[in-house]
Each structure stands twice: as structure tokens, then as C-alpha cells.
Amino acid sequence: MKSANRKFLFNLSFVAALSSAILIGTAIPSPAAAEGNDDARLRGSYAFTTMRTCVNSLSPIDPPFYVVQSILSRQSSTDSGILTFNGDGTASAVGTVRTMDLSAPGGTLVTVNVFESDITYSVNADGTVDMVTNLASFSVVFPPFVVIGNSTGQTSRLQIADGKSMLVSAPSEDYSVETLTFFTGQSSPRYRLCTRSTTAVKIPGASR
């Protein structure tokens, strides 16, 4: 009888240990499973600065050779602000743009506007990040005339660097034609083609 009890208790202990192992294995995902969601590799807020040069046109710019039929204007801008990745393929940005008109025959040479952007992104296996700005709303704050609008069509590629503490511009052969729509201050859309160079640094204390 004692032998039967010991056998029963041994079997019970074995079942309990096996159940615990199964629960632990279920609760802790394997490294392969964790890496399956590449977008989750990028999460948190980054302070960024983007230097860009754009050509602007009142008529559409036609790819693949980016032919334009209207007179172009050139601008040099610095964008700075906070870029936040949610870890699920969505992101947002807020910031300020300071622009100098390089081709103005006269008038205002410098403008400043604030913006908010709605972004989607995907993280690739090589650590590059492809980003699409679905909508960027902007408002001119200097000079003090009211210009409000939005832009669409911006794409970019960044490289995750230094253990996800930095993001920098990554090589890309693609250009994207962006459309600016004005609700005040302009009567027609404007089209632009830009080159950008971005550096972003993880904000201390931001989620990883």
C-alpha cells in the first residue's frame, strides 16, 4: 500500500512539473517569435533634425523622369521635432520647419511653420525603416499671415543604429512627389520634390 502511495505521489509530482513547464513555455515567447514582429523592434520617441532641399511647382511633377512644365522655385529647410513610434507600424511626428526661399525675386525669404504628421512604417530585416507620411498638417507662424494646409506623399528610409538609440538616413533610390494643399493663403495645390537627410536620437526614458 505504501508503495502504491509513493507511486501515486511521484506521478502527481511529474504531472505538476510538466504542467508548469508547459505554462512557462507558453508565457515566455521564443526569440524567433519575438523577432517575428519586426515593427515592434522600434518603439518610443526620438528627437530628430532633417535637412532638406525641395523644388516646388504649380503643375504636377511627372515620374519616372520627374518632368515639370511650370517654373520651379527652390527652398532649403530644417525640420526639427519629436518622432514617436508605437511599435505596431504606426507613428507620429510634431515639430517646426524653418524654410529659406532660394529663388525668391523679392519679398519674404524666411518662413516658419509648425506641423503634425500621421505616419505608417515597416522595419526590415536589415534594420532599415520604410516610412510613409499619410498626412502632415501645417500652419505658418512667421510671417504672421494665415496659411494652413496639409501635405501628402512623403516617403523616407531610415537606418536603426547604435542599439536603437539612433536613426539616420539610409540609402534609397526612390523619389516621391509630394502634394501640398492649402486651406488658406493659396488658391491651388503645389507639388514638390525633395531630398532629405535625417538624424534622430532616442529620448532618455522613452519606452524601448
List keywords for this structure.
alpha+beta; ten-stranded antiparallel sheet; single chain; disordered N terminus; Porin; 208 residues; globular; 2 helices
Give a brief outline of the structure.
The chain has 208 residues and is of the alpha+beta class.
Structural overview:
With 208 residues, the chain is of the alpha+beta class. It folds into 2 domains: 2-35; 38-202, Porin (Beta Barrel). The chain is built from 2 helices and 10 strands. It has helices at residues 2-27, 31-36, and strands spanning 43-57, 73-86, 90-101, 110-123, 128-142, 148-152, 154-161, 166-169, 177-182, 190-202. Strands 1, 2, 3, 4, 5, 6, 7, 8, 9 and 10 form a 10-stranded antiparallel sheet that branches. Strand 7 (154-161) and strand 8 form a beta hairpin. The longest helix has 26 residues, at 2-27. 15% of the residues are buried. The model is unreliable at 1-35 (pLDDT under 50).
Alpha-beta classification: alpha+beta
Rounded mean pLDDT score:
83
- Please give the count of helices: 2
Percentage of residues in strands = over 45%
Largest sheet: 10 strands, antiparallel
Q: Based on the coordinates given, report the CATH architecture of the largest domain.
A: Beta Barrel
CATH topology of the largest domain: Porin
Distance between the termini: 58 Å
Please tell me what the overall shape is.
globular
Question: What's the helix-strand series?
Answer: HHEEEEEEEEEE
Task: Give the total of domains.
Answer: 2
Helix percentage range:
10-25%
Radius of gyration: 26 Å
* Beta-strand segment tally: 10
The first-level CATH class of the largest domain is given as Mainly Beta
Low-confidence stretches: 1-35
